[in-house]
Amino acid sequence: MRLPFLLFLFFLQSFSPSRGQSRQHLLIDKNWKFSQSDTVDAISSNFNDAAWRTLDLPHDWSIEGEFSEKAATGGGGGYLPTGIGWYRKHFAVTEADLHRYVSIRFDGVYQNSDAWINGHHLGHYPSGYNSFECALTPYLQKGNNVLVVRVDNSLQPNTRWYSGSGIYRHVWLDITAPLHLASGKTFITTTRADQNMAGIHVQAVIENPGGKTSTITLLRCILLDPHGREVTRTDIPAPLNTGGATQLNIDMNIANPLLWSLEDCNLYSLRTQVIENGTIADETSTAFGIRTISYDTSKGFFLNGKHIKMNGVCIHHDAGSVGAAVPEAMWVRRLNILKEMGCNAIRTSHNAVAPELLDLCDKMGFLVMDEFVDEWTSPKVKYGYSNYFRDWSQHDLVNFIHRDRNHPSIVMWSAGNEIGEQKQDNGHEVLRALMETFHREDPTRPVTTGNDNIAADGGSAKLPFLDMLDIVGYNYVDRWHERREPFYDIDRHDHPGWKMVGTESVSIPGVRGNYYRGSFFGIDSSVIRPANMAAVIRAEQLWKYVSIHDFVIGDFMWTGIDYLGEARWPNKNAGSGVIDLCGFPKDAYYFYQSQWTTTPMIHIAPHWNWKGHEKQVISVLVYTNCDSVELFLNGRSFGLKALEFPRQGNSGSWNRYDRPQVNTTTGDLHLLWDVPYEPGTLKAVGHKGGKTTVIQEVQTTGPPAALRLTPDQHGIDNGIYDIYHVKVEVVDAEGRVVPESNNEVQISITGGATLIGYDNGNPADHTSMKSSTRKVFNGLALAVIRSAGGGFEVTATSPGLRLAKLNL
Known about the structure:
7-stranded antiparallel beta sheet; 45 strands; mainly beta
């Protein structure tokens, strides 16, 4: 006999279950065995791996190698070695665990991996970027178990940039009841939200592989606010499908919700419980944010009803000296530097990134364009993803969406980058299958692609392809039409229903601390110039257009940070970033900061060490968000100059008529003075609202005299390791960084810490990233140190310079 419905609801709300064996979500990164060889016998659990190297994951063996012009990866892969490697992990299983459901999740293995447990083949997975999971339960045994992974990155080239090789992201072991919540299938969406009330919809899947039935099975959802306090809970009955999966849907309301935004990154958590016969059989916790997003063809993007321009950058998945095995703390540092620039949006070019990077975007307040792959059926490299697309793309796409869709930071999906199908007559049919999957698995976010053959560019991209996109993405829209109008303007007229975003645009490329001398685009060869001025103007004109046209959702410039690969020898990395491989800002960084931030700032370029160039004219470039700037050399004024173009957030033109003695008002987004060189001090004085708000100086330094070590703020990587960033500087007798110094500096560490990366940001430096000795580049280098706890001492030495010590 059925319970009356109201009585049943009362029973659900008053029910207090006991706890069974709780789910274990275990990080198993420590103590793996590794051999960079192709040892077929290693599949056997009885294989003797005692002679193999012991290491902790994440691990990238490519970055441990030497740079070579003859490397099979070529410039695309950063001239580093790849090959085949084997990993073995020994772990214990109890008798009780044999009766539970056990699975393993790899966050990223590059690439073509095969896995075995106790000699049983678990499967083959070609993708090097997507996370994947394997069930271990049928093959486990009490006592010692051996997990074996073979990684084959020998087929080259298989990518257009540095990929890394090996198990370069985290590995997790999950142990739960046979009746359990399916991994990655809990999906939380905001159905409505304002300051007074929010509604969320929860979709969860219970797996019942053993076909077990129970008297009463419930799904309980407990909502916790950002402070960990319970807000509400809901129980519903969970009828089980024998031997299969059961999808359940729950709607919940939250009064006075704390919304997720760029300024207030409020994260709720949903505790989901499977209750079987009065006992909690399984329990998971899912972080999410309550927020609304919308896009308008005329007004662009809205977050919680507020218009926001996406000040975006594209980033790759490596981090310079550590390769693809990036500790979370390195992303914390890099994202903080981008945030100080005024960046509020990230494009994950061009594949699935590490899950912890998206967690950080949630916590630190970034909007994310989450990108799936770089190629579909049309190849860009011989052994790229096009070889696997037809067989694997739908499987990979579903996993990609399921893994990432609860992140509030993700506001847009990208199905691909510069894919060949955009120009093909039937290319939209390949896109159609992907769009259908995106919309089915996540109907809450729009989908774009990065298109480099857009309609206004000679019409090579097919309209059926572009019309199918929710948002049309433009790569390098800043190539100007002969009418001197950007492609946005042309397509806005021809296709008024399109929503538009700059998926990839030129930045101001260059090498940190290097400046132009000699003839450049016909400019007087006697002038030293601080930047590629053609690139400066190009980036400025594009940003002018984007910032004042609301229908352009935003712009993602290429790139936020330098990345390994996509280079030509002798360079090992591309120089398109506004931050170098070490995370040190280049001059171009300050252009974006001048446009994207409001705290008064000035940046002067170039440095002022030009011995031998006395009386030679040097163009002094200033980026600023001040109304006007006056430049002085050794106390002598070279005039007051002002910008006339309104920065983002301002409206109309700036009124500067009340500021006397303005020599020049420019329509550019930079200020420029031609100054005959003499040693001393350049001083820029910035004015805002008629008041002096900021002063910046650049001084001529003395010769190198000493070393200085400065620890950056560090973060903790999953509670296992502390990661320290130590800036290495060559300074003169007065402690000023010598900008043209390139002294060789050795790093030594005593105590419980390891140097895991050491770099200087110089694209042409071929010193191994794992070497403890290298030259600084234009005065700077960065040592990345991993500590397992306890104190240690770092010492820097260089011939002829005073050493530096640092205790951490």
